[in-house]
Amino acid sequence: MKKLLATVLILLLLIALPALAAAGATVTFENRTYILNYEGAEIEDGKLQVKVSGFGSTLPMRKGQFVIIAWAAAVINGKEVRASSVKAGSDGVYAFSCDTDSLPEKVLIYPHEDENNPVLLWEGGAGIAAMAVPEELVGEWRGTGKPKNGGPSIELSAIINADGSGEYVFIQDDYRESYPFTITSDGNRFSVDVPATSQLGSVDGSWALDEGVLKLDITSTFLRGGSYSYTAECKKVGGAKESKAADPGAEAPAWAGRDWQLDSLHFKTLSKDSPFSIDAGMSLNGPTEYGSRLYFDAGAAMVSDINLNGLIEAVPQLPFSVPELNLTQYESFALQENSLRLTPGDLLLTLTYDAASDSLSLTYVSHVEVQSQTLENGMVTKGGETDIEITLGFVPKADE
């Protein structure tokens, strides 16, 4: 089985809390800065589970093993209990397991590069740290931007949810970028969680909300030197968790309440320095052992037997995996303009329905690990990471 380093892209929003109730810590790993957020604690099967986010969409790998950039420890009755194991969730939250059945008074983080000096992550009593964003920021935002030194205009969209989840999409000509980012009300700053292997070194800036317009001042700094700055103005276009199909007073979309058949797949690499390049499609002649059916009801439920990741792993010409595209694990959906959010698991897809041809497509962009392969002639292909766009094309089932 191939290994996947990337997860669904997630947007984490952190609001500054009083000193006695800190809920965030900054750690450094290989000259990169990470903002870790405390997501709460609970007792599960007699053990304390401390939940932390902010590790990024890609864990570094060293000597064939994943590296956790920081380790959690709980302080209970003044005594420290180091976590004995950790489990990564599909939602970007890491659960550190501690051998105790008590909730913590404090949570410490031990940075990988400075294990003798723990950093306070959270303090203030047992339970889940309060996290919220200003109500006026919650929703889907869309707008355009202008490079400060000239050049093509950009399109920018972001989804901000009340629970701190979401993501952004940047488009300029044929270039498309989508990464998690963290926003704080302290100084109205934000920073993007860029994968360690990206050509980008950092992306950060400031934000302001002025009469319903979200104004952003953004600077991208490249690892090879140089920077790119632009400003953007976005307007809210809908609630971040609103499901239009679930609204009793709204008309169901034309693609809902019907059975769809997977008809085609298209794969396109987006990273300029990708070790693997593809821009090609494939047709499917009827059902496969990995499923082909997709159904959205007129409310907000969905069902599918498609395990696209299984199909991808079965094709040797596709040397990567995308576990999130096992659609059998999702049960409901929320329509957000032209985006579709699947739950549980919070998978975001771009949805396009063509009324003229009565066809449906779902597009997913992911950062994946490309595995090196040994060819029949003995040559070994290059491995590495890349952004890839995967489009699933659907037609109505024949029995409709």
Overview of this protein structure:
The protein has 400 residues and is mainly beta. It has 3 domains: 18-123, Immunoglobulin-like, CATH 2.60.40; 135-238, Beta Barrel (Lipocalin), CATH 2.40.128.20; 244-396, no CATH class. The chain has one helix spanning 308-314; strands at 12-13, 24-29, 32-44, 47-53, 61-62, 65-66, 70-76, 79-82, 85-88, 93-98, 106-111, 119-123, 139-147, 154-160, 166-172, 175-177, 181-184, 189-192, 200-210, 213-222, 227-238, 258-269, 279-283, 293-296, 302-304, 332-336, 339-343, 347-354, 359-370, 384-396. A 10-stranded mixed beta sheet has the order 1-17-18-19-20-21-13-14-15-16, with no helix packed on it. Strand 7 and strand 8 form a beta hairpin. The longest helix has 7 residues, at 308-314. The radius of gyration is 22 Å and the shape is globular. Residues 1-22, 125-132 and 239-249 have low confidence and may be disordered.
How would you briefly describe this protein structure?
The chain is mainly β.
